[in-house]
Amino acid sequence: MASFIGLSASQTQFLYRCSLPISSPAFVSSSVHLKKQTPVRRFLVLPIKCSSSGPSQDTESEAETTSVPSSSSSSFSSSLASSNSTYNWRAGIGVVGIIETAYLTYLKLSGSDAFCPLGGGSCGDVLNSDYAFIFGVPLPLLGLIAYGFVTTLSLQLSAKNLPFGINEKTGRFLLLGSTTSMATASAYFLYILSTKFAGTSCSYCLVSALLSFSLFFISLKDVGLQEVQKVVGLQVCMASLVFATLSTSYSNLPSAPSSQANIDLPYFTTEITKESTPFALSLARHLHSIGAQMYGAFWCSHCLEQKEMFGREAAKLLDYIECFPDGYKTGTKMIKACADANLEGFPTWVINGQVLSGEMELEKLAEVSGFQFNE
C-alpha cells in the first residue's frame, strides 16, 4: 500500500505560498528494507518552486503591471491634448497677426493710408514714418512673414507632420525662438512709440505687441521652465541680436518724429491774391447751391493752392470747413464735422456724396458736380 505524507498546518501554509511548476510532478520511489519485511512505503515527492511572495502578491503585481501602463497612457493622452491646445491657440493668434500685417503691407505697397482715428497725433504719423521700415523693408511685411511662420509651424506640430525630419521638441524650441524675437521687437517698438511719438496713439502697434507677447508666453509655458533654463543663453543672444539690428537700422534716422511732439501752431488766416475768372465764380456759385463742401486746415499748403485756383472772390463763395479753427498742436483733435467725414487728407471735397481727396482742377470739380458753364 502507498500512502501520502500527512501535512501539518504550517506545512499547508507553506504549500499555499508555493506554486507548482508547469511540468508534471515526478514520483520517486524509495524502499526501506526492514528486518521484519516491513511493507515498502512510497513517498510522494512534490517538486516545488518557492518564491518570496505568494499568489496574493502575484495578483497584486499583475494588477500593478496592468494599472501602470493605463495610468501612463492616460497621462500621455492628457499631455498630448494639452500640447495640441497650445498649438491651436498659437495658430489662432497667428492668423489674427497675419490679417493685420497683410492689411498694413497692402497699404504700404499701394501707397494708401491706414484707416485710423485722425487727430493731432494719428496712427498715420507712425505707420508712415521712417520707423515703419527696417533697412528699407516695410515693417508690416516682416511681421507678415513672422506670423506666417509661427502659424504654419503650429499647425504642423498639431498635426504631427513636421518637415525636414524635425521632431516635436525641436519644433517647440523653434517656436520659442521665433516668438522671443517677435516679443523683443514689439518691446523695442513700444519704446520708440513712447519716446519718439509722445502723445500719439497707434492701435495697430498695440494690437501687434499684444499678439507677440501672447505668443511668447504661450511658447514659454509649452516648453516648460526646466527646458527653457537649458537654452536661456541662446534666447538672450537672439533677443540681443534683434535689439542690435533694430538699433542699427534706426541709428541714422532724422529726429523729425520726436520734434512733432513740440508742434504748437496758433490759428492764422491766409490771403488769396489771384483774381477770380467768370468760370471760377460760376462754378463756386454752383457748388454752393448743391451743398458741396471743402474740408481743409489753415496750415495746409494744398488747401491754399486750391483756393487760389478759384481766386479771391470765388473762394469766399465756397462752403469751406476749417478742421482746426483753434490752432494745431500735438494732441489736438479735429472738430466733429471733420471727424464725422472720415477724412484721409486735406483738402477733401464732398460733392453729391462723392469724396475727392487732394487738389482738384476746376474742370474736374465741374464734371463731378454736373456744372455746365454758359458764357
TrEMBL record:
Top-rank lineage group of the source organism: Eukaryota
UniProt region (Disordered), positions on chain: 51-80
Major site of localization recorded for this protein: membrane
Subcellular location: Membrane
Gene3D superfamilies, per the entry: Glutaredoxin, VKOR domain
Keywords noted in UniProt: Disulfide bond, Membrane, Oxidoreductase, Quinone, Redox-active center, Transmembrane, Transmembrane helix
Similarity annotation: Belongs to the VKOR family.
Entry protein name: Vitamin K epoxide reductase domain-containing protein
